[in-house]
Structures are given as structure tokens and as C-alpha cells.
């Protein structure tokens, strides 16, 4: 083999290696470019997901704030109702006391009710009887189940 042939073989090998190098370089470049595009697309998807989650988080925070406001309003309403119930209870007690006092005053004014025995209010005072003190016990037994405000018509 002469030197010219060896030179042409070396040149051919170098050309083939150069072509292979260019092919590998171009293929690697395309592969890197495809990876970059895929990574960019994946990053965009992640950003969209992050934005959607951030929106969901804000929505959940708004709902939590609304629920907290509703709970506070319910607490205010409950406090108001409790206060109203206490006020009405107080009014009822005042009315009950006033009614009992008025009934006691009526018993004092009524000549048929014996208020000396310490039985005041509620219509439980014993009516006065013309009978002696022994007969008063019998009158008490007859009239304890009767309401003196109803009059004398119902007595037996």
C-alpha cells in the first residue's frame, strides 16, 4: 500500500468521523431542544396548576371568612335572644309578683276572706265563717279546693 492510499484511508476515516460527529451533535442538539420545550411546557402546566390552587385557596379563605362571620352573627343573635329571654323572664316575674300583690290586696279588702291566719295571695285564704273557731276548720276543709275569685255560686 502506498502512502497515497493510506492518506486517502485516513482522510476517509476522518471524514466519516466528522460526519458521525456532526450527526451526533445535531441529534444531541435536537434532543436538548426537545427537552427544553418539554420542560417549558411542563413548567407552564405547573404554573397553571399553581394559579388554580391559589385561586382555590383564596376561595376557601373567603368561604372560611364567611363562615366565621356567620358564626359571629349567630353568636350575636343568640346573645340578643338570651338577653330578650332574660328580660321577658324578669318581666314575667314582675307581673307574677304584681299579680300576687294585687290578689293579696283583694283578699284584704274582701270581707269573706280570713287573712288573719297568714294565708295570703293565690286565692288560698280561707273565707270567713259565722261559725265558731271550731267551725272554721270545717269551713277550711270545704273551701281549700275552691277559688275565692270565682264567687260564692260554686260552693256546695
TrEMBL record:
Q: Does the keyword Membrane apply?
A: yes
- In which residue ranges is the amino acid composition biased (Low complexity)? 65-76, 125-138
Keywords of the record, alphabetical order, are: Membrane, Transmembrane, Transmembrane helix
List the source organism.
Cryobacterium arcticum
| Domain of life per record | Bacteria
Basic and acidic residues bias locations = 31-64, 77-87, 139-156
Q: Which residues cross the membrane?
A: 6-27
Q: What is this protein called?
A: Uncharacterized protein
- Region called Disordered, residue ranges: 31-156
Instruction: State the taxonomy lineage.
Output: Bacteria, Bacillati, Actinomycetota, Actinomycetes, Micrococcales
Amino acid at each position: 500500500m502506498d502512502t497515497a492510499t493510506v492518506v486517502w484511508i485516513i482522510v476517509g476515516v476522518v471524514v466519516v468521523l466528522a460526519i458521525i460527529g456532526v450527526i451526533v451533535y445535531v441529534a444531541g442538539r435536537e434532543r436538548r431542544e426537545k427537552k427544553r420545550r418539554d420542560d417549558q411546557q411542563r413548567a407552564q402546566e405547573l404554573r397553571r396548576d399553581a394559579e388554580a390552587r391559589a385561586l382555590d385557596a383564596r376561595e376557601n379563605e373567603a368561604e372560611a371568612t364567611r363562615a366565621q362571620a356567620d358564626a359571629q352573627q349567630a353568636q350575636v343573635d343568640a346573645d340578643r335572644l338570651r338577653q330578650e329571654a332574660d328580660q321577658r323572664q324578669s318581666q314575667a316575674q314582675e307581673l307574677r309578683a304584681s299579680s300576687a300583690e294585687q290578689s293579696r290586696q283583694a283578699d284584704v279588702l274582701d270581707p269573706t276572706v280570713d287573712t288573719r291566719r297568714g294565708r295570703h295571695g293565690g286565692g288560698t285564704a280561707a273565707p270567713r265563717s259565722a261559725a265558731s273557731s271550731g267551725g272554721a276548720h270545717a269551713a277550711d276543709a270545704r273551701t281549700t279546693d275552691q277559688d275565692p275569685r270565682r264567687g260564692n255560686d260554686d260552693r256546695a
